[in-house]
Hydroxymethylglutaryl-CoA lyase (Caballeronia pedi), 630 residues
Amino acid sequence: MSDAYSEALIVQEVAPRDGLQIEKQWVETEDKIALIDGLSACGFTRIEAGSFVSPKAIPALRDGDAVFNGIRRGQGVIYVALVPNVKGAERALAASADELNLVMSASQTHNRANMRMSCESSLAGFGDIVRLVQGAPYPVSLNATVATAFGCPFEGRIDEDRVVSIARTYREMGIAGITLADTTGMANPRQVARLVARVLEYVPSTDLTLHFHNTRGLGLANVLAAYDAGARRFDAALGGLGGCPFAPGASGNICTEDLVNLCDEMGIPTGVDLQKLIALSRTLPALVGHEVSGQVAKAGRNCDLHPAPEYARAI
Amino acid sequence: MSDAYSEALIVQEVAPRDGLQIEKQWVETEDKIALIDGLSACGFTRIEAGSFVSPKAIPALRDGDAVFNGIRRGQGVIYVALVPNVKGAERALAASADELNLVMSASQTHNRANMRMSCESSLAGFGDIVRLVQGAPYPVSLNATVATAFGCPFEGRIDEDRVVSIARTYREMGIAGITLADTTGMANPRQVARLVARVLEYVPSTDLTLHFHNTRGLGLANVLAAYDAGARRFDAALGGLGGCPFAPGASGNICTEDLVNLCDEMGIPTGVDLQKLIALSRTLPALVGHEVSGQVAKAGRNCDLHPAPEYARAI
């Protein structure tokens, strides 16, 4: 029987990186390792486990080397490291990261604000990292993110031709994996369907990741639009951790357990154990020192039924 | 040019009723009136302005009569009152409500818990209200809600045949307007598309309303699925007010400004002024005494750009 929702949706868990990087409360290295090991036990095949950025820029993740060296590598799980430059890539390779994720914004202004360099300088640096990885002592895959692909908080609308062109440039440079990131939650499902269809002309769905934030409440609607358009891999953060410095109080990344619940309810296979995931998510408030935005960890699954009140049973 | 998103989406604002009814902090009558008047100025054509329920059952809305008598009636705006029984209907007619909304759950257990009677007793009461309205001294329209249409927190899955059958029964009784309510946020987009298509065989889209809660983060995804299936009218609450006693901490109704932002971004006409709506939503935390769950009032619209940091301008 043909079924529009029978193809698996791959969830790449990014809480250890994109989630924890903005947390003010220091998370101990051993707690980071326990979190990642807990995620590995939930059935993920891809986990962005940390970054190798300057400790001055992102102090919360300054222990990336110790984290990568301390985790138990799950069978068949790809542990991704975000790296901003050759120095970070060297550290990631020394820590045996399976995949390096590079980032450049489609918006020049956002790239200058986020990476402190022009897009041209970012691309030149990517070339250096590609060459480094080609000489690596073990097989390492490469992914590059087009940040602000659906809108920029400084520049506003982003030309879709430019996003497609950047994705093509990444591929031509030898970077197989492409992530389209809605860095500050400006995407809408109509735009997502259009841009995903265009990028899939150049990037196979097995190499494409969509990264949505729930800043304006549209994260899961955007996932479905992208899935309907042929995308199959999505970033999400446990508890909906993460956020945007330009939207204080707003949600961060789309929430992993909310996404997996959606897939479970619609019959889309993910391979992730929702019950374990919810239990792990409920440990987050103690870990980060505040409530998190995810809904399903609060509400429970649909199948977690409640007892009817006494008076109702007597009617 | 044909456009899948050119048809208007009608937003029925329900914060004054479904939102305020569970608030613990008493909202003064004059503040309720100011809120409704503020909503009328935003461009809504339908506002659920209050209920005529026993003050013991819902003390927060015990001033329904004074609220309906105090508001400024906007030109062409339909002010709806929720009524649980004939007594409530009489009060609503005395207060010149334009439309009465009746409620019964598809789940027997939920109806007993919520309405303290069986579904059969509820339907008998609906018959009495229909007769009362037929003799009303001014034209009054009728709507009836199928609560727990997409799932019940006590019983779990709800038979779709039963939901369709209840909608048909309502229509046969002389109740034109039908609302399918996802009372505790258990719906998923696939189920929504299927059930909306089935109900539209019996109910014209001009008479059908979808009422979604965001309990598990799927509210706006469900709206799009319903819109794609032909539904055109949706309940939403300013700030995402409302909630479910069985999901403490989880979101309530879908958030009006988040829905209008989605429509604005996708080009779906609503007739609602998003900027005014956001300004009004930002008054809610002071009114109800706590933060609310809506995202767009925190993050702003996409077009509300931020200045780039100084250092980025120098690169």
Notes: The CA atoms of residues 45 and 77 of chain A lie 4 Å apart. The first helix of chain A runs from residue 15 to 19.
